[in-house]
Structures are given as structure tokens and as C-alpha cells.
Amino acid sequence: MIFCIFGGSNPGNNPRFAEVSKEFISEIAERGHSFVYGGGSDGIMGLTATTALEKHAHVTGIIPQFLMTAENAKTDIDELIVTDTLYERLELMMQKSDVIVALPGGFGTMQEFFTAITKSQLGRHEKPLVIVNVDGYYDPLISLVRTIMDEDFAPQENSSLFIEVTSPQELFEELPNFKPNIGNKFKGRENPLLK
């Protein structure tokens, strides 16, 4: 399998973010899986590539041209793809992967997560979307997602579109059971996306 990794270009203040992220990447790599990620050298994003390479996993980085310097593009990986836009980067990352994992990150990681879950809700993919919740970092985001459903902006079934995990073992226990249910966000009429 190919794992798409979303994660911050900064390491964050909590050293556990890097520690747990490294544990996840190591476990995924040791099981023989490959990675696609944002192409940078720094922060959680860079840690993804460095750890995967240390474990002899195949790593593909995808980065927009305008971020080559800002995100310190990592050139010693197996493949580096340069795109014109952030949108193209994200589209390629999702297209090339089988599983999508959100490690701790900032606004970019949030945008990537919400794009992935929106595409799943609209039936554009059925890939597992995994939130690695380190020390409760993603508690507010998960609470917001539940509020969105409770306030009827999304069907309750959308809770099945992502998996929350705290350990690599939990990740691999949950993956075989993943089955998204997009429900029907179109109130009072048949879901046109399922026709």
C-alpha cells in the first residue's frame, strides 16, 4: 500500500508530535509500505521522509515550485514531483495513495484533511482517512466535525469517513474494518451523487 502523509512543515512545540510521528512512519515502513508526502525537509513533513528512507521505504515527494525553497525541498528521496500549484500537489498526493494519514500539522494539514474528507463525502474516493491524535492535538478538530454533524450540516454517517488512532498498532487493527458511509447530505431528496 501507499500511504499519503499530511503533516506540518514545522515540528510544533510538543516533542511528542515528532516522537509519535516517527513511530507511525517506522511501523508503516517496516510492514513494507511506501509513502507519498509534501516533499519538504523540515518539521513533521521532513521527519516522514527521513524516517521512511532510514527504513528503506520508497518515498515520493510532491511540492509546488513556489515552495521549493520555502519548504526546503528534499531531493534525496526516490522521486520528487514539482507541481505548479498547491491544488495539484494535493490532488496528486491523494491520487497516488491508498491510505491518507494526518499527523500533527498546521493550516496546510487542516486544508488537506478537509479536502480529503469532503471528497470522500461527495463519493470521489473511498480511501481510509486516518487522524493520528497525539496528546489530544486533534480533539478540537474531531469535536468540530461532530458539531458539523450534530448541527445537520453533514449526515451522522459521515463519522465513518475517518478513523482516529493514537498508536500504530491501532492503525493496522482499524484499517481492515474501514468502510465509509457517505449518507445523504441532500436533505429531502435522493442523493444525486449515488445515481
Describe the structure.
The protein is of the alpha/beta class. It has one domain: Rossmann fold (3-Layer(aba) Sandwich). The chain has six helices and seven strands; from the N terminus they run βαβαββαβαβαβα. It has a seven-stranded parallel beta sheet, with helices on both faces. Strand 5, helix 4 and strand 6 form a beta-alpha-beta unit. Helix 1 packs parallel to helix 2. The longest helix has 16 residues. It is globular. The model has no long low-confidence stretch (mean pLDDT about 95).
Poorly predicted residue ranges: none
Order of helices and strands: EHEHEEHEHEHEH
| Secondary-structure content class | alpha/beta
Share of helical residues: 25-40%
Number of discrete domains: 1
Distance between the termini: 30 Å
Number of helices: 6
Total count of strands: 7
**What integer is the average pLDDT?**
94
Shape: globular
Rg for CA atoms: 17 Å
From the 3D coordinates, which CATH architecture would you assign?
3-Layer(aba) Sandwich
Fill in the CATH topology: Rossmann fold
CATH class: Alpha Beta
Secondary-structure map:
Elements: E1 2-6, H1 15-30, E2 34-37, H2 43-54, E3 59-64, E4 79-83, H3 86-95, E5 99-102, H4 107-121, E6 129-132, H5 139-150, E7 163-165, H6 168-174
Helix pairs in contact: 1-2
Which structural traits does this protein have?
16% strand; Rossmann fold; alpha/beta; 6 helices; 195 residues
Brief account:
The protein has 195 residues and is α/β, with parallel strands linked by helices.
